[in-house]
Amino acid sequence: MTFSFGNKPKVKLNTNVRTLDIRRSFLLRRINMIFYDKAHETSYTEICSRMKSLDCYHRAVAYLFALDTVLREHTEAVFDFEDDSIKPDGLFSGSQTDTSRKTTRLAFNLWNGFCFDGETYTDKDGYKAALPSRYYTPEQLFSCTDLAPYYWQAIQIRFEVR
Description:
Elements: E1 2-3, E2 11-12, H1 17-29, H2 38-50, H3 56-67, H4 69-73, H5 75-78, E3 79-80, E4 85-86, H6 98-112, E5 116-122, E6 128-132, H7 138-141, H8 148-158
Antiparallel strand pairs: 1-2, 3-4, 5-6
Helix pairs in contact: 2-3, 3-6, 3-8, 6-8
């Protein structure tokens, strides 16, 4: 696989351990990242190794999916690695907890601005339209005070804030 990192030269990645260590080192050097625990850091590296790209979108999503224990175990329920896309239906899978749902919502929003939970309304022309959910507001997401620093870290990754 070949990955390009912004203005950096392309890096050829193999699946051997040495290359993954180089990749991991590169990912962690980009910004001074904080991790909840060692499992978070390890899972982040593993999820990144499955991503088709390592741009800021993919790294932010990988960081959040690795943060939550439920999401670590059920990443395929919320992200399609083959199609390189989020799975909005995964937000309501049976494995989700209140905390993992908040983490998923933030990941989805950082991925592509997604902010819908399936609620709809009928517009003036009689068509159903998606209604943005209030569950994507900072007030709702950051009410998980123990995870707030890690949510902020994901935002910094996504917007490449140093």
